[in-house]
Design goal:
Blueprint: H1 2-17, H2 31-36, H3 41-57, E1 64-68, E2 77-81, H4 85-94, E3 105-107, E4 112-114
Antiparallel strand pairs: 1-2, 3-4
Helix pairs in contact: 3-4
Length: 116
């Protein structure tokens, strides 16, 4: 067993060494301010991920987010689809220089939106 663990470690060591990670502690605001704006902190972060990914990759991707279905048998999880027509339109509006971002809203609860 010890030899197998060492073999696996040596196989993955180059991948570990190739990983770059940067972390920033964000203290400007937290979930309290997001909730005060009547937004879901989780939805807010998902939209931030969609925006950041689009700015970096110039395309939309489906991200995986598990959702606990605790009221279902055996506590299974469901997958949420965070890329929708509405979220894509929101991201594009955020990047539109002609859009007044202060008037842009997105309500993930009922997918209503006011986009430029």
């Amino acid at each position: 067993m010890k030899a197998e663990i060492e073999r696996c470690y040596n196989a993955y060591k180059p991948k570990i060494d190739d990983l770059d990670l940067a972390a920033t502690i964000f203290r400007t605001f937290g979930k309290g301010l997001i909730k005060k704006g009547k937004l879901s902190p989780d939805g807010f972060v998902q939209m931030a991920i969609q925006l950041a990914n689009f700015k970096d990759q110039k395309k939309f991707v489906l991200t995986y987010e598990s959702a606990s279905a605790r009221f279902y048998a055996n506590s299974r999880t469901e997958t949420l689809r965070t890329a929708s027509k509405e979220s894509c339109a929101f991201v594009k509006s955020m990047l539109d220089p002609n859009c007044n971002v202060s008037s842009l809203t997105f309500n993930s609860e009922n997918n209503s939106k006011s986009l430029c």
